Structure formats: C-alpha cells, structure tokens
Amino acid sequence: MSEEKHHHFFNHHKKDEDQQPAGGEYGGGYSETVAVEAVTAGENEYERYKKEEKEHKHKQHLGEAGALAAGAFALYEKHEAKKDPEHAHRHKITEEIAATAAVGAGGYAFHEHHEKKKDHKEAEEASGEKKHHHLFG
C-alpha cells in the first residue's frame, strides 16, 4: 500500500508527503499528469437521475425565492412611487424592472419544475418500477 502512487488534482501536494524527483520511476524529465473522470464508477442510472431531480428541485426553489423577492421589491417601488411624487418616475421604472425580473425568475422556476418532473420519470423508468396508471391524471 505504501508503494502505491498517489495522484493529486490540479497539481496540489501535501507538504508532509515525500516528493519524487522530476524523473520519477519512468526516468524521463517530465512530471506525470492524471485526468480523473467526474463520474464515479459505482453510480448507476437511477442514482444519477435522482441526483439530477434533486438538483432541479433546488434550482426550482431558488427561482421561486427570486420571483418572490423581485415581486416584493416591485410592490415596494410601487408604494414608493405613490409616497414620493418628486421621484415617482424613477420609482415606476424601477418597479417595472423588478416586475420583469419577477416574471423571469418565475419562468425559470417553471422550467426547473418541468426538468424535475422529466428526471423523476426517467428515474422511474431506469429503476424498472411498475408505472401506476391513474384514471384522472
């Protein structure tokens, strides 16, 4: 075990480990670089789809929170436009921008919701579970 070669990502080394000379065990003057795949070997299709479904659910919630925050800011600016007539035009413009951001964030949340549903369906198919057919939906 102690003779195994340890590979380090992005050329990071622990200081307490022994450093090999540039020639290493191959005798050349070049250092060895190793590329590692991001996907682990034990991860099957079902687990991958469930992980993607979880990621889409998280992104959907972020989109919903963004829509809520932008909508609240738009309502605040609408209130400020009525309260501060001297700068009403500026507040109305800011209100419209915030409302547009709220619609965009809502659309993003809607998109992620459908991606989550698609991944859920693919996970069911990958696991081989029996599909439940409902009468209404």
H/I helix tally: 2
Gap between N and C termini, in Å? 57 Å
Order of helix and strand elements from N to C terminus: HH
- How big is the Rg? 27 Å
Look at the structure and give the mean pLDDT.
79
- Globally, the shape reads elongated
Tell me the fraction of residues in β-strands, as a range.
under 5%
Low-pLDDT parts are 36-42
* Helix fraction by DSSP (H/I, runs of at least 4): 55-70%
Characterize the main sheet: none
Going by helix content, strand content and strand pairing, the class is: mainly alpha
The total strand number stands at 0
General description of the model:
About 5% of the residues have low confidence. This protein has 137 residues and is mainly α. The chain is 58% helix and 0% strand. It starts with 44 loop residues before the first helix and ends in a 10-residue tail after the last helix. Helix 1 packs antiparallel against helix 2. It has a domain of 83 residues. It has two helices and no strands.
